Automatic annotation (TrEMBL):
<dbReference type="InterPro" id="IPR036412">
    <property type="entry name" value="HAD-like_sf"/>
</dbReference>
<dbReference type="InterPro" id="IPR005519">
    <property type="entry name" value="Acid_phosphat_B-like"/>
</dbReference>
<dbReference type="InterPro" id="IPR023214">
    <property type="entry name" value="HAD_sf"/>
</dbReference>
<keyword id="KW-0732">Signal</keyword>
<dbReference type="Pfam" id="PF03767">
    <property type="entry name" value="Acid_phosphat_B"/>
</dbReference>
<protein>
    <submittedName>
        <fullName>HAD family acid phosphatase</fullName>
    </submittedName>
</protein>
Amino acid sequence: MDIDETTLSGYCEMRREDFHYDGKAFNAWVVSEEASVAIPGAKRLFDEARHLGVTVFFITGRDGATEPGKTVDQTAQTAHNLKLAGFDGYGGLYLRPADMLHGKTIAYKSAMREKIIAQGYRIVMSIGDQWSDLLGAPQATVSVKLPNPMYFIP
């Protein structure tokens, strides 16, 4: 599962910024507890998957490693916000490492899916709000593209 606009909602932040992207404001918001609003359908799907014994992984484009003077590692706060929103007991959380901060999202998310498969898992479903969450190899058996009228990430 992707996180932003798939699992957790950023609508309040987008509204506060008058639907204009402000990287500094977004990065401050994403590490605040305000960023722990679950999207109800995603929470229901997560709970049902866990109930059925399916291991759920999160792959997000958030910064997961520091690049001196440029980024802040958002891993701990993202995990905290997922827990606050009720997403607990997942199999892994992948944030974009420093060596992939400036590359294509498709390449990064594909590499993280490859890591999951290398652990012995089969990816039965991928869910995201951007095509870049789903495309590339390996792919899930089923990919679900959620609508996002707010922004597009290539």
